[in-house]
Design goal:
The structure holds three protein chains of three kinds. By secondary structure, chain B is an alpha/beta fold. Chain B contains twelve helices and twelve strands. Chain C is built from 13 helices and no strands. Classes of the chains: A mainly alpha, B alpha/beta, C mainly alpha.
C-alpha cells in the first residue's frame, strides 16, 4: 500500500510541518512581543523589581535577540519558556499534558462527527427523497446552525440540571489529571462533534448519490451482490474520497470548537488553557498553545493525505 | 428447434422524464436458445441496451418495466422477489458492460471483484480465489497470479474487459449478456475480445446475447440477429439470411453502410438520412417512415406487425425489401433520402 | 477600425441575465423553508431597527427587575444576573449580530472579490501568490487567530469585524477566482477581450455580473459564519464589552446561572440558533434557485 515514494513523501511532509510550526510560533512570538514590556504584566511594578522581572523573561534584550533565544531554546531543548502569571511554571510540560486531554476529547468528538455524519449521510442517500431523507437533511442544517456552546448548554441543562437525579450530575469533567473517564466525555464530545457531523452528513449524501449512479455499481448489481454489500463495499468507499477532503478543515474546526467546549465543561485541556491565558494575558502560554495547534493541524492534514492513499489506490505520491 | 432457455414476451420499459413518458422498450418479444449466440443490433436510443438491462431488472432510475414477461426456467423474472432475481444475476445470467474503465470499481482489486461474483453465490473465499486465477487464465490474461492483486487502473483497457468477462463467466452462467463489450476498445483489441467470446461460446455452450450497434460484430460472432429501431424489433432471423436478403429497409440501410460484411468497423453507423426518432413523441404509423426511402402512404398511418418473410425470418414492414427491389429499384438507389425510392413525400398522403 | 470589432463583440450574447433572475425568484418562492427564513430575517431586521429608537427598558439599566427574575408580563424574557431586562438586551444583541454579520460580509466582498477577480483573470504569478496565501489561511485555526487579534487590537465592534474579515476572506476570494477562471474562457469575454475592452471594464462590467449568483450565495452563507464567530468571541469574553450585550455574552452569563435561571441561557441561545438557521436555509434556497443543477 505504501510505496517508497509515498514514504519519502510522508517524510518530506513531516519536515514541512516542523517548519510550519516554527514559522507559526515565530509569527505569534513576534506579534506579541511587539507589545511594550509592561503590557505583558498584570501588576504595576516599578524599579528594580520590574527590571528583574523583565530580565527573568528575557524581555530586556532587543526583540531579535529575544527571538533568537526563544527559537534556540524551543528547537534544541523543546523549551517554550515560563508562564508570565504563574511564575516558575514551565510551559512545555504544561501544554503537553493538556494536549493529551484535548486529544482525548477531540478524538471522541471526531468519532461522533464521522460516525454520525457517515450514518446519516448514507441513510439519507439510500432513502433519497423519502421523509427520512428530508428529516435528516433538515436536521443537518439545524445541526450546523447551532453553535456548539448552545448544544452544550442545552445538554447540560437537560442532563445536568433537569435530569440530575438520574445522571447524578456526573458528566462534568472534574479530574485534574490528564486521563479522563470516557463516560464523562459523552456530552462535551457530542457537543463538539455534532455540528461537524451535519456537514459530513450533507457531503456524504451528495457524494453517495453521485457514486450510486456509476457504472461499477451497476456491475456490482449484475453480479448478484446484496444491496447492503453494494452500499458498504462498493459505494461508500468511493463516496468517502471527497468526504476525506474536508477532514483537514474539520480538524481545525474541532480544535477551535474545543476552546469553547473545554471552557464550558471545565475540561483541563489546551483549549481551556488558550482562552484562559489570553484573558490573563499570559502570552507565553498563548505562544506555546498555538505552537501545539499548528503541529496538530499539520499532522491532521498529513493524516488526510495518508487516508487518501489508503482509500483510493489510484493516488500515489 | 430445441426449447428456448429465455423467452421474452411483450416487454415494455418506460422512463419517466421531465418532458413526459419515454417508452424505451415497446413490446419486445424474442426467444433465446441454449448455446446460441444472438445479436441485438440498433443505433443508440433504439432500446437495445435497456432491453438487456430489463431482463435482469437493472434498469436505472427513472426507468421502470411496465409490462411483459421474461420467462427463464418457467419463472417470470419480472415477477419473482428482489432476493430471487439477485440470485439469478451473475449465477444463471451474467452481464458485461461497455466501458470496462468505468464498469470496474476503482478502489477494489481486480481479482477481488471477480471473487465477489462467486462469493455472492455461495462459494468460499478459497474456492473463489483459486477459480479467479483459473478464469483470468481462461480469458488469456498473462501472469494471472500477480494480476489479481492489481487495481483496475493498473490494467490496460483490453485487460480490464477480459477481467469483466472473467467476472461474467465466474459461475458458468447459462446466458451471458454482453452490452457493447468492444465499443470502448481499439480495433485490434476488439477483434481479440470477440474471438475470445466466440471461443467461450463454443467451449462452454453458454448462450451469448450480444448487444451492439455494429453489424460487423454480429457477422463475426452471432448466428441469429435481432434488429431494433425506436424501442421495437423491426427484423429478426439467421445472420446469413439477413445479411443476404434483409427485408426491412432499416436493416438494408444498416448493411449498405458496411463495405464488407465481415469487416470490423470502429466508427458508429452512418446508415441513413435523418436522426433517430424522438421517443417522447414517436411518429404515427410505422416509426421508421420519416426516414424510410421506400415508404408508402399506409406507412404514415398504420403500424405494421412482425410478419414471416422467409423461413425463420420476420420483418416489421408493409413494403419489405423484396418489393422495394422489384418495384422501386432499391439496389440502384444512390441517394437514400426519405421517400427516395417510393417517391412518397410528407403531405402526399390524404 | 475600432468600431467594427466593438460591434462584433456586442453581438455575442451574454447569458440572459433578466430571465435568470426571474426564474430564480420563481424557484425561491416555491421553497417554503427559504421563504420562512426570509420572513424571519425581515422581522429580525425590523426588531434591530426598532431598537435604535425604542427598547422596553434601557438595556444597561440594572436592578429594573430582581436579579435572575424569570420571564413575566413586565419582563417577557426575564432579567439577567444584574436585574437587567433580557428582552431589551436581546434587541440590542440583534443589532450587534446583524452589524457584525452584514458588516463583515461587505468587507469580505470588498477584499475577496477584487482579489479573486485579479487572480482568476490574470492567472500566472498573481494567481500563484494568491492561491498560496489562501491555502496558508485555510491551514490556520481561524477563530483562534481572531481571538489573538482581538486581544492585540482591543475588543471593540470594529476590531471584531476586522479580525473576522482577516481570517475569513478566503472563501469569497477562492469562489470568485474559480468563477473568473471559468468565465474568462466564455465567448462573450473572449469577444470583449478581442475587441480591446479595458481589463477593469471586463472584470467589473462582464465577469462579475455573471458570477453574481454564486457571490450572493457565498455572502449569504458568510453572514451566519460571521455571526457565529462573534458569538464565540463574546462567549469567551473577547467580544463587545459590557454593558453592551451580545447574544454570545448573554449565553455565557446564562451558563454561569444555568442551575437557577435557565431562561438566561435558553433565550439568547434560541435567538442565535434561529438566526443562523434562517441564514443557512436562505442560503440553501438561494443556491438552489440560482443554480438549479445543484438541486437534489
Amino acid at each position: 500500500m505504501f510505496t517508497r515514494g509515498t514514504l519519502i513523501y510522508i517524510g518530506q511532509r513531516v519536515v514541512l510541518i516542523a517548519f510550519t510550526v516554527l514559522a507559526v510560533s515565530s509569527i505569534v512570538f513576534l506579534g506579541i512581543h511587539r507589545l511594550p514590556g509592561d503590557a505583558l504584566f498584570n501588576e504595576h511594578l516599578h524599579g528594580e523589581q520590574y527590571a528583574l522581572l523583565l530580565h527573568h523573561y528575557n524581555l530586556d534584550k532587543p526583540l531579535l535577540i529575544q527571538y533568537r533565544d526563544f527559537i534556540v531554546a524551543a528547537v534544541t531543548r523543546g523549551d517554550l519558556g515560563e508562564s508570565l502569571v504563574n511564575r516558575g511554571v514551565k510551559i512545555t510540560p504544561l501544554v503537553l499534558r493538556e494536549l493529551g486531554v484535548s486529544i482525548e476529547v477531540g478524538g471522541f468528538a471526531l468519532v461522533f462527527t464521522i460516525g454520525l455524519g457517515l450514518l446519516f449521510g448514507v441513510v439519507a442517500s439510500v432513502r433519497q427523497n423519502t421523509w427520512i431523507d428530508y428529516v435528516l437533511s433538515t436536521t443537518s442544517v439545524i445541526g450546523y446552525s447551532m453553535p456548539n456552546f448552545v448544544i452544550a448548554s442545552f445538554l447540560i441543562l437537560v442532563f445536568g440540571v433537569w435530569l440530575e437525579n438520574v445522571t447524578g450530575g456526573t458528566f462534568f469533567y472534574q479530574l485534574g489529571g490528564w486521563k479522563g473517564d470516557i463516560g464523562q466525555l459523552w456530552l462535551p464530545a457530542f457537543a463538539l462533534g455534532f455540528p461537524y457531523a451535519s456537514i459530513v452528513a450533507r457531503l456524504t449524501r451528495a457524494s453517495m448519490l453521485e457514486v450510486i449512479r456509476q457504472d461499477y455499481i451497476r456491475t456490482a448489481r449484475a453480479k448478484g451482490l446484496r444491496e447492503t454489500v453494494i452500499v458498504a463495499r462498493h459505494a461508500l468507499r468511493n463516496a468517502l474520497i471527497p468526504v476525506i477532503t474536508i477532514l483537514g478543515p474539520l480538524a481545525i474546526g474541532i480544535i477551535t470548537g474545543s476552546v469553547v467546549i473545554e471552557n464550558l465543561f471545565g475540561i483541563p485541556g489546551l483549549g481551556k488553557e488558550f482562552a484562559q491565558s489570553i484573558l490573563n494575558r499570559d502570552y507565553f502560554i498563548v505562544i506555546g498553545v498555538f505552537t501545539m495547534y499548528a503541529a496538530m493541524v499539520g499532522l491532521a492534514n498529513l493524516a488526510v493525505d495518508i487516508l487518501y492513499v489508503v482509500i483510493d489506490p489510484r493516488i500515489r505520491y | 428447434m430445441p426449447t428456448p432457455i429465455l423467452q421474452v414476451r411483450d416487454l415494455r420499459t418506460q422512463f419517466l422524464t421531465d418532458g413526459g413518458i419515454v417508452t424505451a422498450v415497446d413490446g419486445v418479444s424474442f426467444d433465446l436458445y441454449p448455446g446460441e449466440s444472438l445479436g441485438i443490433v440498433g443505433e443508440s436510443g433504439s432500446g437495445k441496451s435497456v432491453t438487456a438491462l430489463s431482463l435482469l431488472r437493472l434498469v436505472p432510475d427513472p426507468g421502470k418495466i411496465v409490462g411483459g414477461q421474461v420467462l427463464f426456467r418457467n419463472e417470470d423474472l419480472l415477477q419473482i422477489s428482489e432476493d430471487e432475481i439477485r440470485q439469478i444475476r451473475g449465477r444463471d445470467i451474467a452481464m458485461i458492460f461497455q466501458d470496462p474503465q468505468s464498469s470496474l470499481n476503482p478502489v477494489l482489486k481486480t481479482g477481488f471483484q471477480v471473487d465477489e461474483a462467486m462469493l455472492a453465490h455461495g462459494k468460499t473465499k478459497a474456492e473463489a480465489h483459486a477459480r479467479t486465477i483459473e478464469l483470468l487464465k481462461k480469458v488469456r490474461i498473462p501472469a494471472a497470479e500477480s494480476r489479481v492483486k492489481d487495481f483496475p487502473h493498473q490494467l490496460s483497457g483490453g485487460m480490464r474487459q477480459r477481467a469483466m468477462i472473467a467476472m461474467g463467466l465466474a459461475n458458468t452462467p447459462s446466458i451471458l449478456i454482453a452490452d457493447e463489450p468492444t465499443t470502448a476498445l481499439d480495433v485490434t483489441v476488439q477483434a481479440q475480445i470477440l474471438e475470445l467470446l466466440a471461443d467461450l461460446n463454443r467451449e462452454l455452450g453458454m448462450a451469448i446475447m450480444m448487444i451492439t450497434h455494429n453489424m460487423g460484430v454480429v457477422a463475426g460472432l452471432c448466428s441469429r440477429v435481432i434488429v431494433m429501431y425506436a424501442g421495437q424489433i423491426v427484423e429478426e432471423g439467421p445472420v446469413e439470411q439477413i445479411f443476404d436478403s434483409p427485408q426491412h429497409p432499416y436493416t438494408w440501410s444498416l448493411l449498405r453502410s458496411i463495405p464488407r460484411v465481415d469487416a470490423l468497423r470502429h466508427e458508429r453507423l452512418r446508415s441513413i438520412e435523418g436522426i433517430a426518432p424522438d421517443l417522447l413523441h414517436p411518429p404515427a404509423g410505422c416509426r421508421f417512415h420519416p426516414r424510410c426511402p421506400f415508404r408508402i402512404e399506409k406507412c404514415f398511418t398504420d403500424d405494421p406487425t412482425l410478419q414471416d418473410v422467409a423461413p425463420n425470418q420476420r420483418a416489421k414492414c408493409w413494403v419489405t425489401m423484396e418489393r422495394a427491389r422489384r418495384e422501386m429499384h432499391a439496389d440502384d438507389l444512390v441517394n437514400i433520402q426519405p421517400g427516395a425510392g417510393s417517391g412518397v413525400r410528407p403531405g402526399d398522403q390524404t | 477600425m475600432a468600431v467594427a470589432p466593438a460591434i462584433r463583440a456586442a453581438s455575442v450574447p451574454e447569458p440572459a441575465q433578466a430571465s435568470l433572475w426571474t426564474d430564480a425568484w420563481r424557484r425561491l418562492r416555491r421553497n417554503r423553508l427559504a421563504l420562512a427564513a426570509a420572513i424571519y430575517l425581515v422581522l429580525l431586521v425590523a426588531v434591530a431597527l426598532v431598537a435604535l429608537f425604542y427598547t422596553p427598558y434601557r438595556m444597561s439599566a440594572t436592578g429594573i427587575a430582581p436579579d435572575y427574575a424569570p420571564p413575566s408580563l413586565a419582563h417577557w424574557f426575564g432579567a439577567d444576573n444584574l436585574g437587567r431586562d433580557q428582552l431589551s438586551r436581546l434587541m440590542i444583541g440583534a443589532q450587534i449580530s446583524l452589524v457584525v454579520g452584514v458588516g463583515t460580509q461587505l468587507l469580505v466582498l470588498a477584499v475577496g472579490v477584487p482579489i479573486g477577480l485579479l487572480a482568476g483573470y490574470y492567472r500566472g504569478w498573481i494567481d500563484s501568490v494568491v492561491t498560496f496565501i489562501i491555502n496558508v489561511f485555510y491551514g490556520v485555526p481561524d477563530l483562534l487567530v481572531a481571538l489573538i487579534l482581538v486581544f492585540l487590537l482591543g475588543p471593540s465592534l470594529a476590531n471584531i469585524i476586522i479580525a473576522i474579515v482577516a481570517t475569513r476572506w478566503m472563501d469569497m476570494a477562492r469562489l470568485v477566482r474559480g468563477q473568473t477562471l471559468a468565465l474568462r474562457e466564455r465567448e462573450f469575454v473572449e469577444a470583449g477581450r478581442a475587441s480591446g475592452a479595458k481589463p477593469m471594464k471586463m472584470l467589473f462590467g462582464h465577469i462579475m455580473p455573471n458570477a453574481l449568483g454564486p457571490i450572493i450565495v457565498q455572502a449569504t452563507f458568510g453572514v451566519p459564519a460571521a455571526i457565529l464567530f462573534e458569538a464565540f468571541l463574546s462567549f469567551l469574553g473577547a467580544g463587545v464589552q459590557q454593558p453592551t450585550p451580545s447574544w454570545g455574552s448573554m449565553a455565557k452569563d446564562g451558563v454561569d446561572a444555568i442551575r437557577f435561571a435557565p431562561h438566561m441561557v435558553i433565550i439568547p441561545s434560541i435567538a442565535l440558533s434561529l438566526t443562523l438557521m434562517a441564514f443557512n436555509f436562505l442560503g440553501d434556497g438561494l443556491r438552489d434557485a440560482l443554480d438549479p443543477r445543484s438541486r437534489r
